[in-house]
Write a structure and sequence with these properties.
The protein is mainly beta. The chain has one domain: Trefoil (Acidic Fibroblast Growth Factor, subunit A) (Trefoil). The protein contains one helix and twelve strands.
Length: 183
């Protein structure tokens, strides 16, 4: 192959390499209402559900009624830090709160001291899809930090890492408003 033909062939190939892939819309922004779907590898309920009546958090099988706590408001977001407010229809505590001292997760009445676990750091897990994330609790007490959906039994807690066996630490962010009825 002549040098000129080679350069033309490479130029054509190189142009193909620089065509951008379709962009996935980044949903995670302040003021947006979202659903969080646990990507754990065990069958079971998958949607993060704030239970405002008793200040607990678990997983729901769908975002349709009676699971109004599956809708979350990104109440504040600065850089990679955010706070999530449950938009459930029942009165009660609303702030997603990681309790690093004992590895539990619940709902707090506000985001002030002593509820330091209401601040979360977003870690993007898929460079091609900004809606696949892990959430690291920024609570002041030492302990496990990663939001972990336990699909086998529908519970939520904090895990010490995001590697297996903690597959429930991977979450997909979706715009709320679309009713998801998987059951």
């Amino acid at each position: 192959m002549k040098r000129r033909e080679f350069l033309q062939a490479m130029g054509g190939s190189a142009a193909v390499l620089f065509i951008p892939l379709p962009q996935v819309e980044q949903i995670l922004k302040q003021g947006v209402q979202i659903n969080l779907k646990c990507l754990g590898n065990t069958p079971g309920p998958t949607y993060l559900d704030g239970r405002t009546a008793n200040s607990t958090v678990g997983l729901a099988p769908k975002t349709a009624k009676p699971y109004s706590g599956t809708k979350w408001l990104v109440a504040s977001m600065q850089g990679d830090l955010l706070r999530l407010q449950c938009k459930g229809s029942v009165p009660g505590n609303r702030w997603l709160d990681g309790r690093t001292g004992n590895g539990s997760v619940g709902l707090a009445p506000n985001t002030k001291e002593p509820f330091t676990g209401t601040l979360w750091r977003v870690v993007y897990l898929d460079r091609n899809n900004p809606n696949i994330i892990a959430l690291e609790c920024q609570g002041k007490v030492n302990g496990p930090r990663w939001l972990d959906g336990r699909t086998a039994n529908g519970s939520v807690g904090l895990a010490p890492k995001t590697d297996p066996p903690y597959t429930g630490t991977h979450w997909e962010v979706m715009k709320a408003g679309v009713i998801i009825d998987e059951g």
